[in-house]
Model the fold of this input.
Amino acid sequence: MGEKVIKSFEVVAEATHPFIYKFEVGKDFDGQSVDDIIEHNGVFKLFNRNDEIITEIQLPVVGVKYEYPDSGEVL
Done:
């Protein structure tokens, strides 16, 4: 398998009660469409289509879904 690309990830968030929140490429966050997600040292960074950072996420991660562009396979 070649290089993998993050398609989405789920985190444990908490308001009054803990819940699972999913960040996903193509989904809006803070009024901007997420075009890319990069993980570096446990911090997930969301970018818009202009490669500008939207936000950084440092919450407990439940799962990550990857795509392998060479194969089209999503895991």
